[in-house]
Design brief:
Elements (H helix, E strand, L loop, with lengths): L12 H6 L2 H12 L1 H14 L9 H6 L9 H26 L12 H8 L2 H20 L5 H29 L3 H14 L5 H11 L16 E3 L5 E3 L8 H9 L1 H21 L10 H23 L3 H15 L9 E2 L9 E2 L9 H22 L8 E7 L3 H18 L3 H5 E6 L1 H20 L17 H12 L6 E4 L2 E4 L2 H12 L12 H5 L5 E3 L3 E2 L5 E3 L18 E3 H4 L10 H7 L10 E3 L1 E2 L2 E4 L2 H4 L3 H10 L1 H7 L2 E8 L16 H14 L1 H19 L4 E7 L16 H9 L4 H15 L1
Parallel strand pairs: 3-13, 4-14, 5-6, 5-16, 6-9, 11-12, 16-17
Antiparallel strand pairs: 1-2, 7-8, 10-15, 13-15
Helix pairs in contact: 3-7, 5-8, 5-12, 5-13, 7-8, 12-13, 12-19, 13-19, 16-18, 16-29, 19-20, 25-28
Length: about 750
C-alpha cells in the first residue's frame, strides 16, 4: 500500500499540520525542485535589494516605468507578468510533482486545487513585494500613501487577471479522471473486480507513449484546500490503476507546451516592435517573462529526461558557446561611422610614432592654446587662469551631477568658467553630463538658447536603465531581429544602440553628432577640448579619443605607453566620422549592462568603461599638463584643476570583525581590494599631485566639487535615479564645501 493510505485513524494536530498538502508541497520543492526555487530566490533578492543594487535592478521591480512614468499602467503590466510567472511555476510544479500525490487524479479540477495548495510561495512573495514597494514609493519616490496604495492595487489587479485567464484556459483543457476515461470505466476500476484487467489492457494499447510513474513513492497527504478554500481530508486512491493516473497528470504536458509557446511568441513580438513606445513594457515585466520561459524550459527538460538534466544543460551551453564563434551566430557591437574595411595592426609597438609626428601633434595643441588665450585675454600682458575639469564616473548620478555642477558654476561666473576651461576629461556618466553642457554652449552660438536655463536641469536625470534592460531581455539574450543603417553600414540594434538613442532623446537631439562636428570649434578654442579614455579590454591600455591628435601623450623614448592615440591608430578608417554618442558609450560601457565595442584592428580589440583605469580623470589631466607645462607656466597666472566628484572623498571605513568565516577569509584579499578600487585610485592621484610640485612651479589650485553621497546617503551606480536620489543630488549643491568652492572660483575668475 502506498504512503498515501498509510495513515493512522487518530491523528494529532501536529500530524494533521505536517501532512497538510501546502506544507508537503513546500517540502517537495525543497527536496526535489531546487531549480524552480532558484527563480523565486532571484525575485526575492531583487525586491529586498540584495542583488543588482549597484546597477539599480531592484528599482525596476519596486518602481517600474512605462511610457516614462511610474504609473498604474506600469504596475498593472508587472503584475500581469508576475501572474504569468506564477502560472508557469504551478504548471511546472504540477508536471514534476503531480504523480507524487495521486489523490489529485481523483478530484475534479485537479490543477485548480493543486495551484491553490501551491500558493504559499507566491502569496509570500506578493505580500513582501507589496510591503517593500509601498516603503520604496513613499520613501524614495516621494509618493503619498494613497498613491502608493493605488499602484500596488493595480499590480494586484494585473496579477489576478492573468491567473483568472490562465485558470479559465486550464479548467477548459485539463480533465479529471472521470472526464478522461468515462464514468463507466471509472466504476469498473473502483469495483476492483470483473473487467479490470481488460480495461487496463485496452488503456495500455491506446497510450503506449505515456510513461508509468512509480506511485509506490508517493507522498502522504491527509488534508488539502478545496476550490472553495475549505479543508478536506484526502480519500484513498490505491484502487486506481497507475497507468490511468499517469495519463491524468501527463495530459498537462501539451497544455504547458502551448503556454510556453505563447510566452516565447510574446517575447519575440515585443522584440520585433520594441521601438514602438507602447510595446516598451517595464523592464521588470520583461525580466519576469524571461524567467517564466526559462522556468518552463528547465522543468520540461527535467520532466522528460530526469537524471540526465544537468548533463544535457551543460551540453547545450557548450554547443551555444561553440556556435557563438561562427559569423552567423557571432554578434559584435561596432563603432558607428568608423570604417571597418581596413583593419589596423595591433598592438602599437614602442617608438612606432616618430618624433616629427609627436612634435606636430603637440604644436597643434599649442596652437589651440594660443587661440584660447586670445579668447579669454585679449590684452597680451594679462595672463589668464587656466581651468582643467575632471569629472568622475558613476552612471546616471555622475551624469546628472556633472551637468548640474557645470551649469551652476558657469552661471555664477557669467560664463567665465567654461571660457577659461582648456580641457575636460573623466569617466562614464561624468563625461556624458560634461558633453551635454558643452553642447548647450554650441547651441547657444547656433540658436541663442540659454545653457543656464533650468529647463535643461533634469535632462540627465531621466531613466536609461529600463530601455536598456528591456532590449537586453527581448533581443540581445535571444535572437537579434533588427538592424539600422548608419553612413551606409548596417549595425545591430542592440542595447548599445538603445542607450545612444535614449541619450539623444533626453538631450533634445543635440548630441546626435559626429566627432568631426566639434573639430573646428575645439581647434579655435570656442569650446573646451574633450578627451575620452575608454579602456582596452585585451591589454588594459587606454584609448585616447579627441578631435585633436594626442600622440605626445602616447609615446615614451624606450618603453611602450599605456595610452593609444585613437586618431593616429585609425587615421585611414575615417576616425573623425565616428558618431559622438558612440564615443560617449565607449567611455561608459558598464560590463554586461552594455556591450563592449569592437574596433577595426588585427587582431580585434574591444573597448569599454574608462573608470577601470582612471575613474576621476586626474591621471590623464596631469599627464596633459605635464607635456604642456612650459607653455602653461609662461602664459597663465595659474592652473585650477576642478574635480567634479560623484561622492565625498574620505578614508574607507574599516569594519572590525576579528572572527571571520572560511568564506570571509577566502574572499577578503580580493573583495576588499575590489571594493576599495576607487579609493586606490584616489591614493595614486594624491601621489601624482605631490610629484607635480617637482615639475611645475606655477600656482596650482585643486578643487573638489563633491556630491553628498556616503554610506548613509547611498545613490545607486546605475542608469536610473529615484526621486529621492534626484533630490539628494540637487541638494548637494548647497553643502558648505561646495558653496565655498563656488565663491572661490567666482573670485578667481574676476581677477
Amino acid at each position: 500500500m502506498s504512503k498515501q493510505n498509510q495513515r493512522p485513524q487518530n491523528k494529532s494536530l501536529l500530524s494533521r499540520l505536517f501532512y497538510f498538502f501546502p506544507l508537503q508541497l513546500l517540502f517537495v520543492h525543497l527536496k526535489k525542485n531546487q531549480q524552480l526555487l532558484l527563480f523565486w530566490l532571484l525575485l526575492f533578492l531583487a525586491i529586498f535589494k540584495k542583488v543588482g543594487l549597484k546597477y539599480g535592478i531592484p528599482y525596476l521591480f519596486l518602481a517600474p516605468e512605462y511610457l516614462g512614468k511610474i504609473s498604474l499602467s506600469s504596475f498593472f503590466i508587472v503584475g500581469f507578468a508576475v501572474g504569468g510567472f506564477v502560472t508557469a511555476f504551478n504548471i511546472s510544479s504540477y508536471i514534476m510533482n503531480g504523480f507524487r500525490f495521486p489523490f489529485l487524479a481523483t478530484l475534479s479540477k485537479p490543477f485548480l486545487k493543486y495551484s491553490i495548495n501551491n500558493a504559499t510561495i507566491p502569496l509570500v512573495f506578493i505580500l513582501c513585494y507589496s510591503l517593500k514597494t509601498y516603503e520604496f514609493l513613499t520613501v524614495n519616490e516621494n509618493l503619498g500613501a494613497l498613491e502608493s496604495f493605488y499602484r500596488i492595487a493595480s499590480f494586484l489587479m494585473g496579477y489576478v487577471l492573468f491567473l483568472t485567464i490562465s485558470m479559465i484556459y486550464f479548467l477548459a483543457t485539463n480533465k479529471s479522471f472521470e472526464k478522461i476515461f468515462g464514468k463507466e470505466l471509472t466504476k469498473v476500476l473502483r469495483a476492483k473486480g470483473s473487467g479490470e484487467e481488460a480495461a487496463k489492457d485496452l488503456l495500455i494499447k491506446k497510450n503506449k507513449w505515456y510513461r508509468n510513474k512509480n506511485y509506490d513513492k508517493s507522498w502522504r497527504v491527509d488534508s488539502y484546500f478545496t476550490g472553495s478554500f475549505k479543508i478536506r481530508a484526502t480519500r484513498a486512491c490505491d484502487h486506481y490503476d497507475n497507468q490511468m493516473l499517469s495519463q491524468v497528470f501527463r495530459q498537462n504536458h501539451i497544455n504547458a507546451s502551448l503556454f510556453e509557446i505563447v510566452i516565447l511568441i510574446s517575447i519575440i513580438i515585443l522584440g520585433i516592435y520594441r521601438e514602438k513606445e507602447i510595446f516598451n513594457i517595464p523592464a521588470a515585466a520583461t525580466i519576469t517573462l524571461i524567467f517564466t520561459m526559462l522556468l518552463m524550459v528547465t522543468s520540461a527538460i527535467r520532466s522528460w529526461i530526469r537524471g540526465w538534466t544537468i548533463l544535457v544543460i551543460i551540453g547545450f551551453i557548450i554547443c551555444i558557446n561553440q556556435l557563438s564563434k561562427y559569423d552567423n551566430f557571432y554578434y559584435q557591437s561596432h563603432a558607428y561611422g568608423l570604417d571597418y574595411s581596413n583593419k589596423v595592426e595591433y598592438p602599437v609597438k614602442a617608438n612606432t610614432i616618430d618624433a616629427l609626428k609627436v612634435n606636430q601633434d603637440l604644436n597643434q595643441t599649442i596652437g589651440m592654446l594660443e587661440e584660447w588665450k586670445k579668447k579669454v585675454s585679449p590684452i597680451d600682458s594679462i595672463k589668464p587662469k587656466a581651468i582643467f575639469i575632471a569629472s568622475s564616473g558613476g552612471g546616471a548620478r555622475a551624469a546628472f551631477w556633472s551637468f548640474l555642477a557645470l551649469q551652476r558654476l558657469d552661471s555664477l561666473s557669467n560664463g567665465a568658467l567654461m571660457d577659461h576651461t582648456i580641457m575636460c576629461t573623466g569617466s562614464s556618466g561624468g563625461m556624458i553630463g560634461t558633453a551635454y553642457y558643452r553642447e548647450l554652449l554650441v547651441q547657444k552660438l547656433k540658436q541663442g538658447l540659454n545653457p543656464h536655463d533650468p529647463i535643461y536641469k533634469m535632462d540627465m536625470s531621466r531613466d536609461i536603465l529600463n530601455p536598456i534592460t528591456f532590449n537586453l531581455a527581448v533581443n540581445d539574450l535571444l535572437i537579434r531581429t533588427k538592424k539600422f543603417n548608419y553612413d551606409g553600414i548596417n549595425h545591430w540594434k542592440d542595447r548599445g544602440y538603445v542607450f545612444e538613442k535614449t541619450l539623444i532623446d533626453h538631450s533634445h537631439g543635440y548630441l546626435d553628432k559626429k566627432l568631426i562636428d566639434y573639430k573646428e570649434l575645439e581647434e579655435k578654442a570656442v569650446i573646451p577640448q574633450l578627451i575620452f579614455s575608454p579602456s582596452i579590454v585585451d591589454d588594459s591600455k587606454r584609448m585616447l579619443i579627441s578631435t585633436l591628435p594626442l600622440s605626445f601623450l602616447c609615446q615614451y623614448e624606450k618603453h611602450s605607453s599605456e595610452n593609444v592615440d585613437y586618431l593616429n591608430l585609425f587615421e585611414n578608417n575615417n576616425a573623425l566620422n565616428i558618431r559622438f554618442t558612440n564615443v560617449l558609450r565607449m567611455n561608459s560601457s558598464f560590463p554586461y549592462i552594455m556591450p563592449t565595442v569592437s574596433m577595426p584592428t588585427k587582431p580585434s580589440i574591444e573597448v569599454f568603461d574608462s573608470g577601470l583605469r582612471d575613474n576621476y580623470g586626474i591621471k590623464l589631466t596631469l599627464k596633459y599638463i605635464y607635456h604642456l607645462r612650459e607653455w602653461l607656466s609662461a602664459n597663465t597666472s595659474g592652473i585650477i584643476i576642478l574635480q567634479i566628484r560623484d561622492g565625498l572623498k574620505d578614508v574607507p571605513s574599516i569594519k572590525r570583525n576579528p572572527k571571520k568565516s572560511i568564506i570571509d577569509e577566502l574572499a577578503s584579499p580580493f573583495g576588499s581590494l575590489y571594493g576599495n578600487w576607487f579609493e586606490v585610485q584616489d591614493y595614486n592621484n594624491d601621489e601624482l599631485f605631490e610629484y607635480m610640485k617637482s615639475w611645475y612651479s606655477g600656482k596650482v589650485d585643486v578643487l573638489e566639487y563633491q556630491l553628498n553621497k556616503s554610506a548613509d546617503n547611498y545613490i545607486s551606480l546605475s542608469w536610473h535615479l529615484t526621486n529621492k536620489e534626484k533630490q539628494q543630488i540637487l541638494n548637494s549643491i548647497n553643502i558648505d564645501d561646495n558653496v565655498a568652492l563656488e565663491n572661490f572660483i567666482v573670485q578667481e575668475l574676476k581677477n
